[in-house]
Amino acid sequence: MDLDPRKKEVLHAIVDDYVSTFEPVGSKSLIERHGFDVSSATLRNEMADLEHMGLLEKPHTSAGRIPSDKGYREYVDSLMKVEPLSPDEQTKISENIKSSVGELKDLIKGAADTLSQATGFVSLTCSPRLKKSYLTQLKILMIEPGKALVVVVLSAGVVKDKLVRIPNFITDKQIFDISNAIEKNITGKPLDEITLITVSSALKGGTDIPDSLLNQVLYEAYAAIKQADRMDVYLEGEHRMLSLPDFSSMGRATQLLGSLADDGMVAGYLNEMEAQDKSNQDSYMIRIGQEITLEGFDDCSFITTTYNMADGVQGNIGVIGPKRMEYSKVISQIDFVKKNLDEQIKIINE
Amino acid sequence: MDLDPRKKEVLHAIVDDYVSTFEPVGSKSLIERHGFDVSSATLRNEMADLEHMGLLEKPHTSAGRIPSDKGYREYVDSLMKVEPLSPDEQTKISENIKSSVGELKDLIKGAADTLSQATGFVSLTCSPRLKKSYLTQLKILMIEPGKALVVVVLSAGVVKDKLVRIPNFITDKQIFDISNAIEKNITGKPLDEITLITVSSALKGGTDIPDSLLNQVLYEAYAAIKQADRMDVYLEGEHRMLSLPDFSSMGRATQLLGSLADDGMVAGYLNEMEAQDKSNQDSYMIRIGQEITLEGFDDCSFITTTYNMADGVQGNIGVIGPKRMEYSKVISQIDFVKKNLDEQIKIINE
DNA sequence: TTTGGCACTCGATGACCGAGAGTGCTAATC
DNA sequence: GATTAGCACTCTCGGTCATCGAGTGCCAAA
């Protein structure tokens, strides 16, 4: 959208004001707070223009203007400037993330906590997409007769396991053999290329176990491998939304938290989004207000980016906040958290 | 507390009415709704008595009465009758729980979901307390140089694992030996009797690895064992509380969800409670309003019971709801869910 | 011990009013 | 042609006020 410079200034000022005060901004207060060199009447005209273009809205006749979704979009796309965080905030975030010790899962959870705390919004994380990573090890460990643990090790340094049932009388040795055979056959294969047939073909006639039993074990192993690929979405800090003036009416608050509670829905949406802007690898995905096609998020924005593990495997991290947010600040917060997370992941994986 | 029969009836009626209408109940409506054979004036006297005894409260001079915490307590302890669920609800719950397939964790989560849905409140589950269970297997699996997976198998049929770092140049064979030695030495020991010394003593001089390296491995193994004992609290359905009239004021809602968000706090409280009424094994723990010493739960009640795994290992399941709840109904809901959960756990463990 | 009656209390509801902030439009000005 | 001053108009918000109704406590009679 092509706006003349003054219109840009006006829109910028209105978004800034509205974001910080949560009150519709009128022509007069605009002059007061920003050093506009024209009269209020002129601004009124400009504002009327911006409204016609669909960038501003009026809650009612005699109130000031607020940005429309389209207005925010314009702001985000071409008006705002992202500035680095204050050193204070930087050290706070860094230390917070460093202090979350443990495995990858804990690290991601720690980053999510930190992000939610820093922004005051809901933070959102997706477990890494492992489709493209390949299998480096597969072990089946006998736990007790009839029960085994399948351990799947992936290229990205991720280890997953699943407790499975196996026929009662299969022995330790047999399991060991099966596990070796499978491993030998599918090591190095990307996860999404492994099918039940791939797994089964590993064993053709190589053992003395009846086919029907063998198939059961193979199926369980296959299921364990496939499960490693499951996408987990984790939301943190839902309660923080209640303190925002944007959701101070019970109705909105209830609806929002209800929608957030269904994290499967959010997960599905993210998946969809990812498919949509594939180009945007490694950059930001921003969805504002009605752009989000899920029910109940009209007053929200999603901002997500990716974090990186070894071998190009990526997950998502971001926030769900009110669309009336300081986009530039939130983006730099996410960015900083993401960088710290990337670093820590590298350290964990040596 | 010894009440004459009519006072009991009156208190019973008031609790019932207040729970279902959420409005202070007055003498007149009490006669209308319940077939009391006396005049409103008489009831007023009775109510005044009950108030003096601390069982009822007045929100303000010219309103009806509401039960005090003590009133609810009396109701729960000696007035209410727990009735079985309707067959409809029973099948609904049963099916819901049966449909949550997978490992123990998924099963518990499924039960929690079901319970929250059935009651409309927050459900609460605690992972089993494994202190008293003993170790049946310990395997250390080499993942790659410098990284190993410690798998701990406990008597209750629980399998836990932890990814640990080990010195880079320790070999497959060495790890195997170490793991065997530890396993041999501490199998059968209750979890809470295993100390770092127990673990270390297993290896005294039995290998060719320098002590300093060995100690690192042993420490990691020890940490993995100890981690198996971690108590996880899982809350589900927080958003449902927003729909209750009890928390329809933004302030209360915010406070409640804020408190609930700190699940560590809830976990600590439950632990404390468990220590307190040890006698009550297998029965109900009920805490009403101010009896709960945590901040932010003045208008809530906790009701929990235990679910059972093999070998006497138990976990907790229950709800956090408004203290203005249908106790008898909720208790039978919890009870039914618990029974179903117990059953499914048995099936999973064969 | 129970009851009818009565004065009193207090929150909820709705009408009303004025203040304040903002707008759109028009006509004059640069 | 863009800008500005001025003005009539609109709409929300907050406060006041009166009224209503449900409920209480207490007293005197049954």
Brief write-up:
The first copy, chain A, has 350 residues and is of the alpha+beta class. Chain A has 12 helices and 10 strands. In chain A, strand 4 and strand 5 (147-154) form a beta hairpin.
Describe the structure.
The structure is a homodimer of 350-residue chains. Chain A is an alpha+beta fold. Helix content of chain A is 46%, strand content 17%. The first copy, chain A, is built from twelve helices and ten strands. Chain A has a five-stranded antiparallel β-sheet with strand order 7-3-10-9-8, with helices on both faces. A three-stranded antiparallel β-sheet of chain A has the order 4-5-6. In chain A, a hairpin with an 8-residue loop joins strand 1 and strand 2. In chain A, helix 1 crosses helix 3, helix 1 packs across helix 4 and helix 5 runs parallel beside helix 12. Chain A is elongated and about 90 Å long. The model of chain A has no long low-confidence stretch (mean pLDDT 91). The interface between A and B is medium-sized, with 31 and 31 residues. Chain B binds a DNA duplex (30 and 30 nucleotides) through helix 2 and helix 3.
